[in-house]
C-alpha cells in the first residue's frame, strides 16, 4: 500500500528537504523547497534529487494526493451515526465539499456505497420517515439551490439492521459515517 501525503485542493503547500554527504560534500544545493501544485484533484508525484561531489545522485519520489475537503454528512443523518430510520423509507443523503478556501466544489463526481454492519439496532426509530423520490443510481447529484450533493436513498427491501454509508468522491477518498 502506497502512502500519500494529502493536501486539500487550492491549499498553499511546499515540501522542504535537505541532503548532506560527510565524505565528499554536496555538488547540488543541499536544501530547498518545492512548491506543490494543488489546483487539480488527483494523485501526483514530485521527485527530489541531490548530487554529491563524487557524482553520486540520489532521487527520492514523494507521492501526494490533492483531495476535496469533506464537511461531513448533513441532516437528517446524524454525524455520530445515531440516526435510525424506519425500514422502507427514503433517506436524503447530503454533504458538501470545499477547497482549502472553503469555496464550495460543485463539479465532483460522488457515489454511495452501503455496508451492513450488524443485524441489530440498539435504539428505536429516531428520525422522520422520508418519502422523497428515490435516486435511480448510486451517483450523487449537485443541488445548486442548496449548494450540496444529494442522493435520495431507498431502504425498501433492505434487511433490518445497522448500516454504514460511504460516499466515495472522484479524488479517491471515502467519506463515511459510522
Approximate shape? elongated
Tell me, rounded to a whole number, the average pLDDT. 86
Helix content: under 10%
The span between the termini is 24 Å
Strand content: over 45%
Rg, Cα atoms, Å: 23 Å
| Strand order across the largest sheet | 6-7-10-9
- Helix count from the secondary structure assignment: 0
Uncertain residue ranges: none
**Main beta sheet:** 4 strands, antiparallel
Structural class: mainly beta
The sequence of SSEs as H and E is EEEEEEEEEEEE
The total beta strand count reads 12
Give structural attributes.
mainly beta; elongated; 4-stranded antiparallel β-sheet; 178 residues; single chain; 12 strands; 46% strand
Detailed description of the structure:
This protein is mostly beta strands. It is built from no helices and twelve strands. It has strands at residues 5-8, 13-18, 31-36, 42-51, 57-67, 69-73, 90-98, 110-118, 141-143, 148-154, 162-169, 174-177. Strands 6-7-10-9 form a four-stranded antiparallel β-sheet, with no helix packed on it. It has a three-stranded mixed β-sheet with strand order 1-5-4, with no helix packed on it. A three-stranded antiparallel β-sheet has the order 8-11-12, with no helix packed on it. The mean pLDDT is 86.
Amino acid at each position: 500500500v502506497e502512502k500519500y501525503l494529502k493536501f486539500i485542493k487550492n491549499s498553499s503547500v511546499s515540501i522542504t528537504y535537505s541532503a548532506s554527504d560527510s565524505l565528499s560534500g554536496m555538488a547540488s544545493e543541499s536544501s530547498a523547497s518545492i512548491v506543490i501544485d494543488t489546483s487539480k484533484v488527483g494523485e501526483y508525484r514530485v521527485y527530489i534529487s541531490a548530487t554529491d561531489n563524487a557524482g553520486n545522485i540520489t532521487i527520492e519520489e514523494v507521492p501526494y494526493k490533492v483531495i476535496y475537503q469533506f464537511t461531513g454528512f448533513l441532516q437528517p443523518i446524524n454525524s455520530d451515526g445515531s440516526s435510525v430510520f424506519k425500514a422502507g423509507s427514503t433517506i436524503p443523503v447530503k454533504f458538501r465539499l470545499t477547497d482549502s478556501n472553503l469555496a464550495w466544489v460543485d463539479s465532483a463526481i460522488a457515489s454511495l456505497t452501503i455496508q451492513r454492519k450488524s443485524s441489530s439496532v440498539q435504539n428505536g426509530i429516531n428520525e422522520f420517515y422520508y418519502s422523497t423520490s428515490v435516486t435511480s443510481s448510486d451517483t450523487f447529484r449537485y443541488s445548486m439551490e442548496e449548494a450540496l450533493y444529494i442522493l435520495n436513498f431507498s431502504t425498501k427491501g433492505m434487511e433490518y439492521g445497522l448500516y454504514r454509508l460511504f460516499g466515495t468522491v472522484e479524488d479517491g477518498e471515502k467519506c463515511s459515517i459510522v
